[in-house]
Structures are given as C-alpha cells and as structure tokens.
Write a structure and sequence with these properties.
Helix content is about 15%, strand content about 35%. With about 190 residues, the chain is mostly beta strands. One of its GO terms (cellular component) is cytosol.
C-alpha cells in the first residue's frame, strides 16, 4: 500500500497494491498495523455503505460533533466519486479550506478524512457504491453538516453535481459560518 499525504494536514490518499493476472486482481485493501504506522493511530468501529443510482448525486457535507467525531476511510467499490474533505478544526491554519479527489473502483484508491473535517461526495457514474470505515459509532444527536454549495467554502464540484438529488437532510444544512455559531450556542447551553 502507498500513502500520499495531501495538502490539508492529516488527509491522506491510500492506494493499495494490486496483483493482476488474466483472471482479474487481488488487493489487500486494509491492514490495521500498516494504517496505524503510516496514516493514523485509530480504531475503526463501524463500516457504512451507500448506493447512489444516479450520476450527480451529492451526499454531504457531514460530520459528527464532540464527543462522537468520526474519522472516515472512504473507498469506491463500484463506479466513481469526487470525494471532498473540508477542514473545520478549530484554530487550524487551513480552517475552511477544502480538497477534492476522484476515487474510483478501477483505481482502488481510498481517502482518509480525519476527525475535524466535513466530508461529502458527488457520484460520477450510475450505480456508484461507496464504503467507509469510521472511528466512532453513528450518533443521531451528534449528526451535523454544512451546505454542500456554501460559497464561503467554494468547492469546485463537478458540473454533473445535481442539487435535485440531495437528501432532505442535506438540503437543510447551514452555511459554515452559521454552523460555527450554532455549535458555539449548543456548547454554551451545555
């Protein structure tokens, strides 16, 4: 496996080796010890999977609040996605900055999105299947997000991105600056 550190500190692209022959390929897609030594010392506790039928489906931008912050190891099992991470770590020099990476089943590459980041993706092909391991269990009361098209973040989504394919929950996410205010108020209420 190869680890490629990306411009936002802590975000890493992982490309597993593939052993190819005329039958297809074999690939080890995850190894705990290697991941801990090369990427992050975390434990994955849950694995999620999503199927998006239509190209242009946007899912995100999601995260969980403390104490249930999630790190995510994302990979595309079928099709292709434009995967996005947005830094929302308090005090980070790259706060509010984003990066995007195309993940495909064909390439087998993965994206490590540490805790403290918004995460989302746009499907690029029909019937796209995405899987991601997470470092904390899903907690509905800690589930949060920001608007996928927040102009303050300015993500350059692929032109195929279709706002008509957003979930009702994703349509209601606030802008990042409103999210910070609502989180601060929630913490003050304690």
């Amino acid at each position: 496996m190869k680890a490629n550190a990306l411009p936002l500190a802590g975000v890493v692209e992982i490309t597993p080796d593939r052993h190819v022959d005329d039958r297809g390929y074999f690939s080890e897609t995850f190894r705990d010890r290697w991941f801990r030594d090369e990427v992050a010392r975390v434990t994955f506790v849950q694995e999620n999977q999503s199927l998006s039928r239509a190209p242009g489906t946007v899912r995100g931008l999601h995260f969980q609040t403390a104490p249930f912050e999630q790190g995510k190891l994302v990979r595309c099992l079928s099709g292709a996605i434009f995967d996005v991470a947005v830094d929302i770590r308090e005090g980070s020099p790259s706060y509010g900055r984003w990066l995007g990476l195309t993940l495909t089943a064909e390439a087998g590459n993965q994206l490590w999105v540490p805790p403290g980041f918004l995460h989302g993706f746009c499907t690029l092909t029909p019937d796209t299947l995405v899987s991601y391991k997470v470092t904390q269990y899903y907690s509905p009361s800690h589930d949060a997000g920001a608007a996928w098209d927040d102009p303050d973040i300015g993500i350059a989504w692929p032109s195929i991105a279709d706002s008509g394919l957003l979930s009702p929950k994703d349509r209601r996410h606030p802008r990042l600056r409103e999210l910070v205010t609502s989180l601060d108020a929630a913490m003050e209420r304690g």
